[in-house]
Amino acid sequence: MSFLIFFIITVFIAVIQTAIPYLVNRAVVFGVMIPERYLKDETIKKYRKHYSMSVGLLSIIILGSYIGWVLSNERLENQIALTGAIIEFALIFISLSFYLYYHGKTKQLKQQNQWVENLKPMKVTDLTVRKQDEMLPWYVYLLPILSTIGLLIYTMLNYDLLPDQIPTHWGPSGEADAFTEKTPISAMQLSLFLLLMQIMFLAIHAATKKSGIKLSATALESSRNRQLSLRKYSSWLLYIVLLGITMLMSYFQLMTIHPEIGEGSVKILIPFGFLLLVLIGTLIFAIKVGRSDKEMETAVEAQIMDLDEDKYWKGGMFYFNKNDPSIFVEKRFGVGWTINFANPLGYIIVFVPLLIILLISFL
After folding, report:
1. What pairing do the DSSP bridges indicate for beta strands 120-122 and 304-306?
2. Are strands 304-306 and 313-314 parallel, antiparallel or unpaired?
3. Residue 325 in contact with residue 176, Cβ under 8 Å?
């Protein structure tokens, strides 16, 4: 089971990392803003192709080696899991290394060819675009939050049914493999973690809903389509993942109170089903958003360009702009959102709940 889980995750990482150059915002190449009129430059096409071929080929070699290593001899579950985790991080590191290399090459290409010289930067605003926004309303998050509050109450009402050792971690097979002494805090710990995560997800949703909708002056229709697609599908993905986490962690909590519900294959199927839900949902999201601005032809005026915000992006990955009130902005490399690191509210939304979870763990 460990091999199957890590193999599926590794394949997913390899596919996404290989396809990323063709899923990002059309006006951004390896974290560098390129004027619309130069997006079909042959050198840029070559950089994208070489990145994808390199990452894809290395991924195949690494996956093949992993399969061969597992099949060559009988391996322990913890050996398979540890090696699988190392491979996942190795793939991310490899793809990041290639990204940084081509980020530097693209930035150099842009400067050498003086692509932004003699082009007038322009910013456009569409006052009607907010009315077209199809993000989920905030109050849908009340359902999982209320269910978790109910689970907390149910846990304390059935405190006497809990075992003396409370599970705190479950392995790939669904079996608990770490425990702590029974106390009121440890009995509620899992549900408290879940509640904090739900509040964090709600805050992220609210912050992304209020984030600015950045449109392109040279590709108005395609940029509008991408922004609306990003907001709509990320909203749904975030909520679906939250529902999956809620069901998974609630199941583990109820299994601690009533062990009989964990008998048979159900304790394997539920975590595996959650994994597939997240991976398939993420893949659909990446494809939907990635293609949303690629199917429209754009007629570009010769002397205009979008505002060049490269100076706010460190390495094309980390966004620092104190003049932008948005807490979250679209990633430049990848599909989804990243924090505006110059806005302290982003740290509060993401890191404070994580610090509280760590604090509860130590207590």
Report:
1. parallel
2. unpaired
3. no
If pLDDT is split at 50, 70 and 90, which confidence band does 298 have? low
Q: How many domains does the chain have?
A: 2
Tokens for 55, please give them: 């990452």
Task: Identify whether the C-beta of residue 343 lies closer than 8 Å to the C-beta of residue 212.
Answer: no
> Average pLDDT, stretch 127-145?
92
Which of these three, 116, 137, 154, is where a domain ends? 116
Same domain for 140 and 40, yes or no, is no
Q: Identify the domain boundary among 90, 116, 142.
A: 116
Q: Hey, how many other C-beta atoms are within 10 angstroms of the C-beta on 110?
A: 21
Structural domain boundaries, residue 263: 118-363
pTM of the model: 0.89
Count of other CB atoms within 10 angstroms of residue 48: 18
d(CA 205, CA 236) in angstroms, rounded, equals 10
- Whether 196 and 274 map to the same domain: the answer is yes
- Reading the block at residue 83, the tokens are 């090696």
- Buried b vs exposed e over 201-211: b needs ≥16 C-beta within 10 Å? bbbbbebbbeb
Read off the pLDDT of residues 324-347 as tens digits, 9 standing for 90 and up: 999 999 999 989 999 999 998 888
